[in-house]
Specification:
Length: 178
């Protein structure tokens, strides 16, 4: 009898934790609905550690978005990312998008979300790679950007950047996919 009761309690807890529409999920959805979109000025955009390998020598970086504001805010979709040259101009087209949108991410003050940025081997894509000195990053839905210092080989007329959708939490190379 005890085993049956214990199994029932464990099953009820599992349903409460994992079932869509469970009270914890409903509270998170209500919080997301009431929080405004994150302003670029309330975010700090930075790189996590990169992971090499992949097709044609691509390197994957978690592009992190930390809420440095004093209240919760939301992000939804794909960030805009482009390579920048030493003169401040854009090199090649903006990053293409890869993956499926995962919904709205609510960031409490101090919390972080990420998108995986893939940097393809410019030498395999163009005859004369140029040196990028940074990235211009627009949080999803934002019209203001942040600059992220980052030196890498880019192509003047072809894209070497591919970005995935925003996901909750800090990105972990080799474990987070776009």
């Amino acid at each position: 009898m005890r085993v049956g009761v214990l199994a029932g309690v464990v099953a009820a807890v599992a349903v409460a934790i994992f079932a869509p529409g469970a009270s914890a999920g409903s509270a998170a959805a209500a919080s997301a609905a009431s929080a405004p979109r994150c302003k670029t000025s309330h975010l700090e955009v930075w790189f996590g550690l990169g992971l090499g390998g992949g097709t044609l020598g691509s390197v994957y970086y978690p592009l992190e978005f930390s809420n440095v504001g004093h209240s919760a805010c939301t992000l939804n979709g794909f960030p805009g990312v482009s390579a920048v040259g030493s003169g401040g101009g854009q090199l090649g087209p903006a990053a293409s998008r890869n993956g499926q949108h995962h919904g709205t991410v609510t960031l409490a003050p101090g919390a972080t979300a990420h998108a995986i940025l893939r940097v393809e081997d410019a030498g395999a894509l163009c005859a004369h790679p140029v040196n990028a000195v940074g990235l211009k990053v627009f949080p999803p839905g934002a019209t203001a950007s942040q600059s992220v210092p980052f030196s890498f080989a880019a192509c003047a007329h072809r894209g070497v950047l591919i970005v995935g959708p925003l996901r909750a939490g800090v990105g972990i190379p080799g474990f987070t996919t776009s």
